[in-house]
Give the backbone structure.
Amino acid sequence: MSVRGKAFIAGAYEHPLRTIPNRTVQQVHAEVAAGALADAGLSFSDVDAYFCAGDAPGFGALSMAEYLGLQLTHIDNTETGGSSYLLHVQHAAEAIAAGHCHVALITLAGLPRSSGAGIGGAGRFGSAPEVSFENFFGLSIVAGYAMAARRHMYEFGTTSEQLAEIKVAAASHAQHNPNAFLQNAVTVEEVLQSKMVADPLHMLDCCVVTDGGGALVVVSPEVARKLSRQSVPVLGTGFAAKHVNNGRIDLTHTGAVVSGPRAFAEAGLSPRDIRYASIYDSFTITVLATLEDLGFCEKGKGGEFVSNGALQAPFGKLPFNTDGGGLCNNHPSNRGGITKVIEAVRQLRNEAHPAVQVPNCQFALAHGTGGNLATRMGSATLILGQEV
Amino acid sequence: MSFLPLADVEINNETQPFWDALHNNTLLLPHCTSCTSVVWYPRAHCPVCFSTELQWEEMSGRGTIYSYSIVAKGNGRWKESGPYVVAYVELAEGPRILTNIVGVAPSEVHINMPVHAVFDTGDDGRVLLRFTAAS
């Protein structure tokens, strides 16, 4: 069953703050939920499906459903890290197409900045079967991504300068976002001179640590038609789970190799049709590998691709993360996947900042990456449009 | 032993022989008698062909570095370790496994570098499998 055109994103809201002291996580979930529902022109009493992931406190999605006061016929707490919320859009579209619900609410919120968490969070998963083999040895989240970057450099000749270009493009966009955590433009040299965290990744190759959150409202075509707000149809969806495959690790490819083609096939589109892309940017290498795997350039040529200004809005070949992305704007709960969808919706509604609004943005792609790059990860791709 | 922290690993019935062998300076991994895969990490079934007919087999302890990172400053118990090398080592028998490279200057470490197993044992009996440059 294809979900193409069977569900619409009617509401999208990003919390304006990046440091939120003296509030509970559930309170921020409620704030972003209210924001997205108001954006859609709907209310809490219209919601009949609720989606959240591991950042939401409590027993699956049930605690939050109770806290928010929702009356639900469908619920989903699929947890795939930063890709969760894009997969939630897919699941919401499927549930709407199957008639299980009409108005689906998706929320993300977290307070890692106020609670003093580092980049990527703890990265430990209790009694997971791999925990005594893959989680010791001082493997930080950054080090895992750094090993992917190192291998990419070895296989394809990618350089730190090329990775830095990704940060430079994100920072040039963040200058226009008054809510962005980092609003300064940076140069390649400044990235290379920033502190080395886990070689070859520098501090400025890493995403920001921010409090905050975001929410989406996905509705049926019948509901969308009744709303005055412009709704954005879901045209294509794809997901892949990639793991170490019995120790036969391949660090240079992500699950986007699978999720991308599935999303493009469902949408009936190809990478050259995409005018704007939100690419999950926990680290610069995340973007580089994902761009290649989604087919925006040949495998191994990502460094060359990003060095030619391709990512710069509004006139680059593939403007990306025009809100400043996770690298500069926002990475709430150390997993800002939902912000990828929110900025794609802004672009399709022609509501991005004028300096970075892509002209004639007919089709946009949003991609989420969860977990550890190429080893134990979820990859989720969405293709959205201005109309079906 | 190296200067790096050891760990309180979780040992269960599926993995006990692996940890027992490390105490005897031996690297044992399950070998699938059905499809011949070497299984990483140890478990009670083969994730390639789903057979449960596995046998523990001694590995050579030799390998090469598949990728690595020099971590400038670790977290938690690793905070005071100074720069250290976390790596994936490709065992001669196939699996690429997470480890540390010890006994060699981080600046000397490179992809494809030949390494061999070090059974890093603490006074308290805890043990971790690490690797050092092959002589």
The radius of gyration of chain A is 19 Å. Residues 8-116+207-385 of chain A form a domain with the Peroxisomal Thiolase; Chain A, domain 1 fold (CATH 3.40.47.10). Chain A has a mean pLDDT of 96. The interface with chain B takes residues 118, 127, 129-134, 136-140, 142-143, 146-148, 150-151, 154, 195-201, 244, 246-249, 251 of chain A (CB under 8 Å).
